[in-house]
């Protein structure tokens, strides 16, 4: 007779349930510790629960292009605005059309909601324009055709020392709020700082004789009188100017003004852009990539500008008629480039967001901005939580009445699943922008039934094995493979439905789908790493192992057959006699 092989376990056996359970508890403690360490001890709430801002934008087409306000362009604008707002980390921002020419933007209350509102208000077209002239933001001198400046009224009363300080403030790259103090490179090289040219004097470079100068006398006059410190003048500086014409523009902060040439690259030519921290240089930069068509255009303009002197070796990134940044060009660039300078983290990320999502097919005007109160959502949330509590109570009552002692395992598993769900929702808020709204709460309530169903499947498989005459410990191990297959198939179907729902829907319904998918995955984790090990350990106790009447596993109450081993021995001894 061959000796049994050492280390062989019964089908579905689990040799060290304590180790598996310890692994689960360590993961739960780590997640909980991370939640408290991050300071986000509660899930982020959506606009229907936390309140926020609802903005109405009206589309405005350029003269002669009234047919541009159509369904295709409006849907494109919705997608871009949604990506821009959520790119700032504002979760559950809802962007949808209303009627033919309006877009509604709902921004939940949060750390970046004010910043998002500002960027939603500046969702016009994005262009790259070459810089012809730059000066401080106030009224300045006006250059003559030969390049020598004429004094203006605003230039009086300032000595050369004060003048030099004003010009350094307008052109030095160390001034973080000044957009022209950036360098555009394609590697790790940094452009030299522009040289100050005097107080309030436009910085220009004389053009070769015979070269066309798009900065006409009328444009020079507008430039000289433009006061960018005035918000109204700053907003209307280039209003109504076509992208094929030169224009004047102000920086967003109002501390610099420009004469800009015709647009040579559009925002739609930018494929992607993002603000990143350069470890080698210890500074924030903006990396951007262009489309195939945009690469050719960008190569052409940077090749020309790289041969010019400052400031005509700069190009301006113009959003909604205002200059977001005006980096210098040091060399011919094509498919990719980076903008470096005195960026803060916020400035680099904002500029990357603008470059990525700033090009809209239409201009928009803010019609209204209303504050949404969370009172109504709070009442609905309370009603939903009461309904969830009633459902959970009914599930527990059913488990206690029908499964008796086994209900302890089910309740402990539900608590473990709830703890995992809560900590993950709290951590996913700052991590990926997840926000808990009313549909998401519904998804969590539905998950109670999914989790309870997994326990019931396993418990019923164990009872089936006991009815066949097996004792509890082998019954627990033999029931697990069959229950495991059923649980995995059931959870896969639920997760697939959640994934499809998440892909084909928008807005709040995605919150329901995301929560349903998350809790379905957690159900698998809890059943495999918590419920099964706990059941294995309790099967070794006297209360459950000997089938106490209140354990829920009493062989008599289950109508168990005689033990399988006894019946086999009887048949083995009687067969020879019959023979």
Would you write up a description of this structure?
The strands form four sheets. Strands 4-9-8-14-13 form a five-stranded mixed β-barrel, surrounded by four helices. The protein has a five-stranded mixed β-sheet with strand order 11-12-16-7-15. The chain is an alpha+beta fold and 579 residues long. The two termini are 25 Å apart. Residues 142-201, 203-212 and 566-579 have low confidence and may be disordered. The relative contact order is 0.13. It is built from 17 helices and 17 strands. Helix 3 (71-87) runs antiparallel to helix 9 and helix 12 packs antiparallel against helix 13.
Shape: elongated
Q: Overall mean pLDDT score?
A: 75
Biggest sheet: strand arrangement:
4-9-8-14-13
Residue share in β-strands: 15-25%
Number of strands: 17
* Share in helix: 40-55%
In DSSP terms, counting alpha (H) and pi (I) runs of 4 or more, how many helices? 17
Largest sheet: 5 strands, mixed, barrel
Unreliable stretches (pLDDT < 50, length at least 5) are 142-201, 203-212, 566-579
C-alpha end-to-end distance: 25 Å
Structural class: alpha+beta
What is the CA-atom radius of gyration, in angstroms?
A: 35 Å
């Amino acid at each position: 007779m061959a000796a049994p092989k050492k280390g062989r376990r019964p089908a579905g056996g689990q040799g060290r349930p304590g180790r598996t359970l310890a692994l689960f508890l360590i993961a739960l403690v780590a997640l909980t510790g991370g939640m408290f360490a991050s300071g986000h001890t509660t899930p982020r709430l959506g606009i229907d629960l936390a309140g926020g801002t609802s903005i109405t934008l009206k589309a405005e087409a350029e003269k002669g292009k009234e047919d541009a306000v159509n369904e295709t362009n409006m849907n494109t604008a919705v997608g871009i605005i949604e990506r821009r707002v959520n790119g700032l980390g504002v979760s559950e921002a809802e962007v949808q059309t209303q009627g033919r020419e309006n877009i509604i933007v709902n921004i939940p209350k949060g750390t970046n909601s004010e910043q998002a509102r500002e960027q939603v208000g500046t969702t016009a077209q994005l262009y790259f324009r070459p810089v012809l002239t730059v000066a401080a933001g106030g009224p300045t001198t006006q250059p003559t055709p030969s390049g020598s400046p004429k004094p203006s009224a605003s230039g009086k009363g300032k000595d050369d020392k004060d003048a030099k300080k004003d010009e350094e403030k307008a052109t030095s790259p160390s001034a973080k709020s000044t957009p022209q103090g950036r360098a555009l490179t394609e590697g790790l090289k940094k452009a030299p700082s522009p040289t100050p040219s005097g107080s309030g004097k436009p910085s220009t470079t004389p053009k070769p004789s015979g070269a066309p100068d798009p900065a006409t006398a009328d444009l020079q006059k507008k430039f000289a009188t433009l006061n960018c410190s005035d918000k109204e003048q700053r907003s209307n500086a280039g209003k109504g100017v076509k992208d094929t014409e030169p224009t004047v523009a102000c920086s967003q902060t109002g501390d610099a003004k420009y004469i800009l040439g015709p647009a040579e690259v559009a925002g739609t030519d930018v494929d992607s852009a993002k603000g990143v921290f350069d470890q080698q240089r210890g500074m924030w930069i903006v990396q951007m990539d262009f489309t195939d068509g945009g690469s050719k255009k960008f190569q052409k303009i940077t090749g020309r500008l790289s041969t010019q002197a400052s400031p005509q070796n700069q190009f301006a990134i113009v959003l909604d008629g205002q200059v977001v940044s005006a980096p210098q060009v040091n060399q011919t660039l094509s498919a990719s480039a980076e903008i470096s300078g005195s960026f803060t983290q916020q400035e680099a990320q904002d500029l990357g967001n603008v470059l990525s999502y700033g090009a809209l097919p239409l201009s928009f005007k803010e019609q209204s901005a209303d504050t949404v109160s969370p009172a109504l959502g709070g009442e609905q949330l309370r009603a939903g939580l009461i309904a969830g509590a009633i459902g959970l109570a009914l599930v527990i009552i059913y488990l206690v009445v029908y499964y008796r002692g086994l209900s302890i395992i089910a309740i402990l598993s539900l608590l473990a699943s709830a703890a995992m769900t809560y900590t993950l929702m709290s951590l996913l808020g700052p991590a990926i922008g997840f926000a808990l709204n009313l549909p998401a709460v519904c998804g969590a309530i539905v998950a109670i039934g999914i989790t309870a169903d997994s326990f019931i499947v396993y418990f019923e498989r164990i009872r089936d094995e006991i009815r066949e005459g097996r004792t509890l410990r082998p019954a627990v191990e033999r029931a697990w493979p069959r229950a495991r297959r059923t649980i995995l198939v059931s959870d896969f179907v639920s997760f697939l439905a959640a994934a499809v729902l998440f892909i084909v829907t928008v807005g709040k319904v995605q919150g329901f789908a995301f929560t349903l998918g998350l809790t379905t995955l957690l159900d698998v984790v809890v059943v495999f790493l918590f419920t099964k090990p706990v059941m294995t350990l309790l099967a070794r106790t006297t209360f459950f192992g000997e089938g106490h009447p209140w354990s829920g596993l009493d062989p008599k109450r289950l109508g168990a057959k005689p033990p399988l081993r006894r019946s086999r021995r009887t048949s083995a001894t009687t067969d020879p006699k019959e023979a």
